[in-house]
Write a structure and sequence with these properties.
The chain has 169 residues and is an all-alpha fold. The protein has helices spanning 2-11, 30-35, 61-71, 86-96, 100-168, and strands at residues 45-46, 53-54.
Length: 169
Amino acid sequence: MKPDWDKLTDAFADSPSALIADVDCTTEGKPLCDANGVRGYPTIKWGDPAALEDYKGGRDYASLLKFAEENLKPMCSPANIDLCDDEKKAEIEKFMAMTDDELSAGIAAAEKQMEDAEETFKTGVSELQEQYQKLMTMKEETLEEIKNAGLGMMKAVKGAKAKKGSDEL
């Protein structure tokens, strides 16, 4: 992916409105990565620098370029309210009317909901994994019991009978 990413960076080097960049999350960039929820590498984020979103598209040059050309442009935001539809303008105006404390509380509540959703997901996956392990163990034990109860011998006898019957013809 790195060569394609570097090629994309070069393609947008002179863009007045789009920035394609690398951040090393293991060194000086770690605080930025932590603040933006980067957990694995490589991670691609895009959008308003104050509210970056996860990129979920292809990692080849053609996919990255297509996405960049379609999405990395001035967008509806408090800095570009003229690009917003009436619904987004109303939402921005509602948030602009809030105090910093109200905004911080709203952000904290929404982030808590996201953390809770992630925790619910992880707990559910863990429970499914435990159930899977139990079912796998039960299946293996049952199959072993069936084999030990004579399945192999029954098949051998049936085969021997079929062979003996064909020998008599």
